[in-house]
Amino acid sequence: MSAPTRIGILFGGPSAEHEVSCASALGVARALAGGGYRTVAIGVTRTGGFRLMPDAVLAELRDRPATERAIDDRLTVTGPAVELRSGPRPGTVQVSAVNAPGAVHAELDVVFPVLHGPFGEDGVVQGLLESLNVPYVGCGILASAVGMNKVAMKRALRADGIPITPHVAFEAHTYRATEDPEKLVLGLRRPLFVKPASMGSSIGISRVAEGDDLAAAIEEALRHDQLVMVEQGVTGRELECAVLGGWRPEASAVGEVRVAGGWFDYQQKYFGDADPMIVPAVLPDEVTERVRELSLRAFAAIGGWGLARVDFLYDKTTGELYVNELNTMPGFTAHSMYPKVWAAAGVGYREVVDRLVELARTRHASRPVTATGSDR
Ligand SMILES: Nc1ncnc2c1ncn2[C@@H]1O[C@H](COP(=O)(O)OP(=O)(O)O)[C@@H](O)[C@H]1O
Ligand SMILES: [Mg+2]
């Protein structure tokens, strides 16, 4: 029997989505352990340091019964400070003690960055892993970066003729130099959605209806990013579809998130009492098919690899579908939409994770050999 594949799970991270990542990572750790992989959990602190979770702590967290709310069920960043270095065999990395590279704690064949938001989902970690020449799960640098930045993402979607909502984007200095913020959003109908360009989990987003304070919403978005996007709101339903694959990706069943109060805010995403997800969404067949087709086109538009969840706004009155965004590392807890819509399509959580690991290796094997990092 060949030795089990050794997978390093990266989780936590400096973004505001730290806790969500810790919860997603526990789901992935459970699936990998159940699938016969050897797993090593590497927590990323809020300042970007790496910590190796001791095996016993990982085993304890992994084996405890699931809690009711996904967000309470999570790994924690704990353990000695470590760094990743190229391993002796090309395509592997070593987890070694900081300042004592001889002290190797573990060796990895594949890295699974279960990180959401800036740093982990925007190409930064992907760049590190590329430079270490190790296979890793999910999108590469470019697709991650484009997927994280809502302005770049909408440009990529528009260039490929994918329907998106009317919007404007501006930088902090433009806003500060403008007397009346209304001038920046001319032509957009309320309600507006004001968003930091690079964030997730609805953090920093405000819905601005008639009579609401636009300037306050922009200030809030600016706390998270210097680049702000303002979109015209769509009143209707929110649909989500998962994409999985490499050269010939596939689209899952379609799910719906039932949202209260006009939009899906952070509180509802992670602390809501009722499960807001309806899987599969109840839709005419042709709408389901169009969502699936647009999901694959959106994935191709950003150059995706491995996985992404594509989120839609479905206008109640006009029947128009808009791609709202792609998430290149979507929530991955057992209660998350990504695994749920795959389960509805007959692909279980463990199979999804298996395929992602395989896709990481395919991508690594097919990329042109440049710097291997092996002489570091
Ligand atoms: N143009 C829009 N029309 C209606 N609702 C929107 C619009 N943009 C965002 N929303 C609401 O805000 C939520 C979060 O926005 P989204 O762009 O998905 O950011 P995030 O990356 O933080 O998830 C959406 O799930 C939806 O409820
Ligand atoms: Mg979203």
Q: What does it look like?
A:
One of its GO terms (molecular function) is metal ion binding. It is a single chain. The chain is α+β, with helices and mostly antiparallel strands. The protein has 3 domains: 6-138, Rossmann fold (3-Layer(aba) Sandwich), CATH 3.40.50.20; 146-163 and 236-361, ATP-grasp fold, B domain (D-amino Acid Aminotransferase, Chain A, domain 1); 167-232, 2-Layer Sandwich (Dna Ligase, domain 1). It has 11 helices and 16 strands. It has helices spanning 18-34, 55-63, 124-131, 141-148, 150-159, 172-176, 214-222, 266-271, 285-301, 337-344, 349-366, and strands spanning 6-12, 38-44, 50-52, 81-86, 93-97, 100-108, 110-113, 167-171, 192-196, 206-208, 227-232, 236-245, 250-257, 277-278, 306-315, 321-327. The strands form 3 sheets. It has a 7-stranded mixed sheet, with helices on both faces. A hairpin with a 5-residue loop joins strand 2 (38-44) and strand 3 (50-52). Helix 1 packs across helix 11 (349-366) and helix 4 (141-148) packs across helix 5. It is globular. The two termini are 32 Å apart. The relative contact order is 0.15. The mean pLDDT is 93. Residues 165, 193, 195, 199-202, 205, 231, 233-234, 238, 259, 263-264, 311, 313, 324-325 line the site of adenosine-5'-diphosphate.
